[in-house]
Write a structure and sequence with these properties.
The structure is a single chain. Helix content is about 30%, strand content about 10%. It has helices at about 15-20, 25-40, 55-65, and strands spanning about 65-70, 80. The mean pLDDT is about 90.
């Protein structure tokens, strides 16, 4: 099997971001790591666009009949909660 060669991707940055990156010893590795980390945290529904298509909106509306978005009492982040299951404690209490 033939190994795929790395591809070059370029993009423009504003002067402020360029200045901030000047002290980074290996900018390419830094950017690769930052992109991989960001992609691991992308919304599975909108894929990071922040916008739902009309079909995604219809799916969300059907899903949201039995699910709610609630703020966690401990960390104050928002999460999806099923209306038919008891809420589980997600954070351990330090003793």
């Amino acid at each position: 099997m033939k190994k795929k060669q790395p591809q070059i991707v370029t993009f423009k940055v504003d002067p402020t971001l360029l200045e901030a990156m000047k002290g980074v010893p290996n900018r390419s590795e830094f950017i690769r790591s930052a992109l991989l980390a960001a992609l691991q945290n992308v919304c599975p529904l909108c894929k990071g666009t922040g916008i739902l298509t009309p079909n995604q909106k219809r799916h969300w509306e059907a899903f949201s009949v039995d699910h709610n978005v609630r703020e966690c009492d401990d960390c104050h982040e928002f999460s999806l909660v099923c209306a038919h299951k008891p809420r589980r404690k997600m954070h351990r209490v330090a003793r």
